[in-house]
Specification:
The complex is a heterotrimer.
Chain A (H helix, E strand, L loop, with lengths): L29 H13 L10 H23 L23 E2 H11 L2 H5 L23 H10 L1 E7 L2 E8 L8 H12 L11 H11 L8 H7 L17 E2 L19
Antiparallel strand pairs in A: 1-4, 2-3
Helix pairs in contact in A: 3-6, 5-7, 6-7
Chain B lengths: L2 H9 L9 H42 L12 H33 L6 H23 L16 H20 L8 H26 L5 H35 L9 H12 L14 H13 L1 H15 L3 H6 L1 H22 L3 H7 L3 H31 L6 H33 L6 H6 L2 H51 L1
Helix pairs in contact in B: 2-3, 2-4, 2-14, 2-17, 3-4, 3-5, 3-6, 3-7, 3-14, 4-5, 5-6, 6-7, 6-8, 7-10, 7-12, 7-14, 8-10, 10-12, 12-14, 12-15, 14-15, 15-17
Chain C lengths: L3 H27 L23 H12 L15 H8 L15 H4 L44 H7 L17 E5 L23 E5 L1 H12 L14
Antiparallel strand pairs in C: 1-2
Helix pairs in contact in C: 2-6
Classes of the chains: A mainly alpha, B mainly alpha, C mainly alpha.
Chain lengths: 264, 491, 235
């Protein structure tokens, strides 16, 4: 029954508990334990040699942590406000430079799955997805492309000799902000050999408002009824010149009331 | 005369102080035999059940068709049932048993009126059984650590009050003048638990806060349960067993006060770190992270006291199963403290937020620290209570290795793969489906949990073997004395 | 320790301090949140968020009781400068996007902005979740859906393998009934892909139960398509 591995401590010490060797021999009785440590607890008044290093370490660690923790709470706690959600928030928000619509557009083009169908170079896929490169649908009045992105389009179209029958473009723009839609169209209109004017986020907002809550995708004929192909861009003059749009808030220190402002 | 005073003799549990120490401790142990065995048996049952649930949940993540046809066995329900069975069934009940026994022993008092303890224990178990069954039947709340339906919590709370009162009464009528560090920790844990449970119960179910306020209450409750209930109980056990079995005084006992107060002071502020980068004001996140960081102070104190005391006695520690479990728990606590420190920077918190890493943190404290310490205490106290040696050393060894390896592998895997999962989620170029498909963590969990389930089953067998042989001994001696009496009477 | 009253008082104080500091403070700061305007200068606009009701409310119950929250979170980490620091190096083509504030979640298109406490004020029990075994669902209602694929959520629930090969998401077949096609296929029958284990036998069709419809209605109602003063869309 009893075996070496179930016993512990000094075999010379007599067992204290009624169970004998059970679960390990006590090298120290309860009375001794309490009395000894009661004495030890008083020893802090006269630390013996070698004992005094540890409180110093402890005080050192404690001070460093209190200092760092204090700094963290002072600088990264959003002044204890209930409407701050950014460690880096500062009370004096600065406004940042303009957003590079081309770079943002490139990201949206990849992330919103445009790239998967229309291809990384906007070449489309013969018979399945229309190309964006050199497409008359992309040129001219930007509101046509905005409308397609916002609610999608179902139907057969032919673009530059590539006939897509029964195509179905999802309403990817529904889940994007105005600035994101403007950026991706700016990107498409100034890449893949296209050289068109950039798209203003405000114009996207305008079209979105006009469409209301429309969920019915366009048919090509209906859309061309609104915005025929081949006409010059009537809104080009209104768009900002250098492919940039003003940003409302900063990149590093957004204010709570206008954290990372939208292009609206 | 105050009517209460007439009650005092009823609850006064003091032992006869004129007797020797051994005799007094024997009285204490004997007085607790029934309730401790009752709670330990129930706790071990829940432990085995909980590990099996956890294993099923882990298998479901590896093989999505495993038991997929039954609505009551969805991953969410099995996982929630596993968590609650382990926390409330195993963790709390084992903590009650160990805390009552240790408190009574250190205060040198006998617990009287055991009937109330049994009633409370029955209510606790029935309430929990009802709650876990309700989880399977679809009444789960999806609130972390409070998945039980809200109406079960008052039952648990009421039973708890009955149980903990005895612990506090023991302290009130203690016969020993010096108050040892284990007693502080037990007192704090016994006092903190009901208020935390009450706050969580009210804040989530009965007077629910608006929106995420509930999540904040819940996160606070999770952090509080870990650092103000489970860790203090584990520390009480380690502080008691280590010097007692080794026969050495604690290395820097006079600093234990510092460790105690800092743990209590910072432990309640850690919970919100589970919600970092979530929809709560940033100052609460910062407070959670800072609270998590400064916890290293009590852990350093505990580390000096435990490791330096055990240093040089490695052979003894290795030979004694009790000390093996104890030191595993002490080492795990130190490790937990440094992991906390390292993962409390903003960048690290971003990586681990909402990954398996956080599950690892909880499991680390609950299993590697708390449960291992409780195993140590049970290996120490059960033979003393039963008056009999453990029947099988091989089963003890098997349990130790299964628990040590299973728990260690599980926690480390959750840390490592959780960190990787976080890095990949934070890199938008990585396809999310690819992260989901990553099977290494789930396969490791299945292996580790299977090991744990086996270990717990082994412990359960050893426990019942011990109790059965103790009962057989008792029956035999009763029979003998009965026979002797019959003989004497017949003559 | 000699001074026991100090011990008792100390323990009580150590509990009361974080209770006041976190529980009480969060109730004071967030407990009275009301629906708000989208922006400070927008005086007449609608108030957000809107309470969800009807079928979506029932679906929420299904979501809770099936334990979906054990694998799916409903919280989008906000765009913040801290997040961007770790984001910079990882952006596509090594381009440094100084001016675009992102968080990994927003870059994954799990939402256009981070979630804030106000988003949850109408939820009886917020289902934030704690681990992402599956994608975040805070904005799942506005994921791009093509017209041809409008029942992708149903297919996903019936057998996620059909839509996401290799996923660990279990099939929730008990939310659907397989029934014999009676003349015309039912209007809400699932358009399942043609692979063998998923498709029902010939002559049979899979239709969602009322609970599945409620659950999908709930998932479609999960949208972060409005701005709040404290949470604007990231760009």
């Amino acid at each position: 029954m009893s075996d070496a591995s179930a016993n512990a401590g000094n075999p010379a010490t007599p067992p204290h508990a009624p169970g004998g060797l059970a679960g390990g021999v006590d090298a120290m009785g309860d009375n001794a334990l309490l009395a000894l440590h009661e004495r030890l607890a008083r020893e802090k008044e006269e630390p013996s040699e070698g004992f005094s290093l540890i409180p110093i370490i402890l005080i050192f660690v404690g001070c460093i942590l209190t200092y760092l923790g204090g700094i963290d709470l002072a600088q990264h706690s959003g002044a204890f406000r209930g409407d701050v959600f950014d460690f880096e928030w500062t009370p004096h928000a600065e406004t940042s430079g303009p957003v590079d619509m081309n770079k943002l557009g490139a990201r949206v083009f990849a992330d919103a799955n445009c790239k998967n169908c229309h291809g990384p170079e906007g070449a489309g896929q013969n018979g399945a997805y229309p190309p964006l490169a050199g497409s008359p649908w992309v040129r001219g009045d930007a509101r046509r492309a905005i409308s397609v992105v916002l609610v999608g389009m179902n139907g057969s179209i032919t673009v530059n000799g590539n006939t897509v029958s029964g195509g179905s473009m999802p309403n990817v723009g529904k889940g994007l902000s105005d600035t994101q839609v403007a950026a991706v169209l700016t990107y498409v209109r100034s890449n893949f050999g296209n050289q068109e004017s950039p798209v203003d986020p405000a114009l996207v907002g305008e079209v979105r408002a006009q469409l209301g809550g429309r969920s019915q995708p366009w048919s090509p004929d209906e859309l061309l009824g609104h915005y025929p192909l081949g006409l010059p861009d009537p809104t080009a003059a209104a768009a900002p010149a250098a492919g940039t749009a003003p940003a409302a808030a900063s990149g590093t220190a957004p204010a709570p009331a206008a954290a990372s402002g939208s292009g609206k | 005369m105050c009517p209460c005073e007439s009650l005092i003799p009823l609850v006064d549990p003091r032992t006869d102080s004129t007797q020797s120490e051994e005799a007094q401790l024997g009285q204490v142990d004997a007085s607790l035999r029934g309730p401790v065995l009752f709670f330990v048996a129930k706790a071990l049952g829940w432990l085995v059940l909980g590990s099996l649930f956890a294993l099923v949940a882990a298998i479901k993540l590896v093989n999505r068709e495993f038991l997929a046809g039954h609505e009551f066995l969805t991953y969410g329900r099995v996982f929630a049932a596993a968590v609650d069975a382990l926390i409330y069934g195993w963790g709390c009940q084992a903590a009650f048993a160990v805390a009552l026994w240790l408190m009574a022993r250190l205060c040198r008092v006998q617990v009287k009126h055991l009937g109330l303890l049994y009633v409370a224990g029955v209510f606790w178990n029935v309430g929990l059984l009802w709650g876990v069954a309700a989880i399977f039947l679809g009444d789960l709340t999806s609130v972390p650590l409070l998945e039980l339906p809200g109406h079960v919590l008052p039952v648990l709370l009421a039973s708890y009050v009955l149980i903990a009162t005895w612990g506090v009464l023991c302290f009130r009528y203690r016969q020993t003048t010096p108050v040892y560090v284990s007693q502080w920790y037990l007192l704090a844990a016994l006092f903190m638990f009901p208020w935390m449970l009450f706050t969580a119960m009210m804040g989530v179910f009965y007077a629910p806060g608006r929106g995420v306020v509930q999540s904040i209450v819940d996160a606070w409750y999770v952090g509080g349960m870990l650092w103000l209930f489970f860790v203090p109980v584990a520390l009480a056990v380690i502080y008691y067993l280590l010097p007692k079995i080794l026969g050495r005084p604690l290395f820097v006992y006079y600093l234990a006060t510092v460790g105690f107060w800092t743990l209590l002071a910072f432990g309640g502020w850690t919970g919100t770190h589970f919600l970092v980068y979530g929809p709560i004001p940033v100052w609460m996140q910062a407070v959670g992270l800072v609270g998590n960081t400064v916890l290293i102070v009590p852990i350093i104190v505990a580390a000096f006291n435990h490791h330096v005391t055990a240093f040089g006695a490695a052979a003894t520690v290795w030979q004694s199963p009790v000390l093996r479990f104890t030191m595993y728990s002490a080492l795990a606590l130190t490790f937990a403290g440094f992991m906390n420190l390292l993962t409390s920077t903003h960048a690290a918190a971003l990586t681990i937020s909402m990954t398996a890493f956080n599950v690892g943190t909880v499991l680390h404290l609950f299993y590697a620290v708390f449960s291992m310490a409780v195993f140590a205490a049970l290996y120490y106290l059960l033979p003393r209570i039963c008056g009999r040696e453990w029947p099988s050393a091989i089963l003890i060894k098997a349990h130790f290795w299964a628990a040590a390896l299973g728990g260690g592998i599980l926690v480390l895997a959750l840390y490592y793969f959780g960190w990787r999962q976080g890095e990949q989620i934070n890199n938008p170029e990585v396809d999310f489906l690819g992260i989901v498909k990553e099977g290494a963590l789930n396969q490791t969990s299945v292996a580790a949990l299977a090991l744990l389930a086996i270990g717990h089953l082994v412990f359960l067998v050893n426990f019942f073997w011990l109790v059965a042989s103790a009962a057989w001994d008792c029956a035999k001696s009763c029979l003998m004395s009965g026979l002797a009496m019959v003989k004497g009477g017949g003559r | 320790m000699k001074n026991l009253p100090l011990l008792y008082c100390g323990i009580i104080f150590m509990l009361v301090a974080p209770w006041c500091g976190l529980i009480l403070a969060s109730n004071v700061q967030l407990g009275g949140l009301e629906p708000g305007l989208s922006s400070a200068d927008d005086t007449g606009g609608p108030l957000y968020p809107k309470p969800d009701g009807g079928l979506a409310g029932q679906g929420r119950e299904v979501y809770t009781t099936l334990g979906c929250a054990e694998c799916h979170t409903q919280q989008v980490r906000p765009a913040s400068a801290t997040l961007m620091l770790s984001q910079k190096v990882k952006l596509k083509d090594g381009e440094e996007m100084r001016d675009v504030i992102l968080s990994p979640d927003i870059a994954r298109l799990w939402g256009k902005r981070g979630t804030v406490p106000r988003d949850y004020i109408f939820q009886d029990r917020p289902l934030l979740g704690f681990v992402r075994n599956g994608p975040d669902l805070a904005d799942v209602g506005s994921r791009p859906i093509s017209a041809a694929d409008s029942d992708w959520l149903y297919v996903h629930l019936y057998d996620a393998q059909a839509v996401r090969p290799g996923t660990v998401m279990p099939p929730f077949r008990y939310l659907f009934t397989v029934q014999k096609i009676n003349g015309q296929p039912a209007r809400d029958a699932l358009k399942l892909p043609d692979s063998e284990p998923i498709r029902p036998p010939a002559g049979y069709e899979v239709v969602p139960t009322a609970r599945a419809k409620a659950l999908v209605a709930y998932l479609r109602s999960l949208k972060l398509d409005y701005e709040l003063q404290e949470a604007k869309f990231a760009q």
